Amino acid sequence: MRSLNLSYMKFFMLMAFALLGNFACMAQSDSAAAATSPVKTAYAAVKEKAAVLLYPNPTKNKAELQLNGFEPGLVQLQIINMAGRVERSEERLLTNGKETVVIMFALPAGVHYVILKQKGKMIKTKMLVQ
Predict the structure, then answer these.
(1) Cα–Cα nearest to 65, from 77, 56, 53
(2) Which candidate, 129, 128, 74, places its Cα nearest to that of 101?
(3) Residue 120 DSSP one-character state
(4) Measured between alpha carbons, how far is 33 from 13 in angstroms, rounded to an integer?
(5) Where are the beta strands (DSSP E) in 28-72?
(6) Which residues neighbour 107 within 8 Å (Cβ) at sequence distance 6 or greater?
(7) Predicted structure pTM score
(8) In the chain, N or C: fewer CB atoms in 10 Å?
């Protein structure tokens, strides 16, 4: 009787290991398929509207621009006076979509516009220089 119980026990143990082995193989094949499937990046999934916050405003010779919704890469920055003349034009490299850019300048007192352009996006904000 005892040998009969041991043989049933061996049989059930072998069946349990066989089933677990099948589940492990299926889990590995699912993870391999997931590893080769295309992955969407955060930039492709989230399309934020471009925005800029300029501070301090009014300013004297230094301003910070908090940029949101831009893509990593070059962004064109221009400072234009009220007459429409470009006072400053440069390109800045953005490493992610949200970051702070510091600009230093020696501009006459008055109202100026800061324009940021990147791949069809354009943001214009007013800057008061004291």
Answers:
(1) 53
(2) 74
(3) T
(4) 30
(5) 51-55, 62-68
(6) 61, 79, 81, 87, 129
(7) 0.62
(8) N
Report the C-alpha gap between 19 and 124 in whole angstroms. Answer: 64
The whole-angstrom distance between residue 16's C-alpha and the CA centroid of its chain comes to 47
* Tokens coding 73: 């890469």
Which pair of tokens denotes residue 129? 């220089």
**Token couple for 44:** 């492709």
E strands within the chain? 51-55, 62-68, 73-81, 86-94, 99-104, 110-118, 121-129
Tokens of 112: 């100026």
State both tokens at 128: 């008061």
User: What is the dihedral sign for C-alpha 21, 27, 31, 37?
Assistant: positive
User: Helix, strand, or coil here: 87?
Assistant: strand
Helix, strand, or coil (residue 77)? strand
- Give residue-wise pLDDT tens across range 14-67: 666 665 565 444 545 444 454 555 554 444 445 678 888 999 989 999 999 999
What are residue 99's DSSP bridge partners? 67
DSSP conformational letter for 59:
B
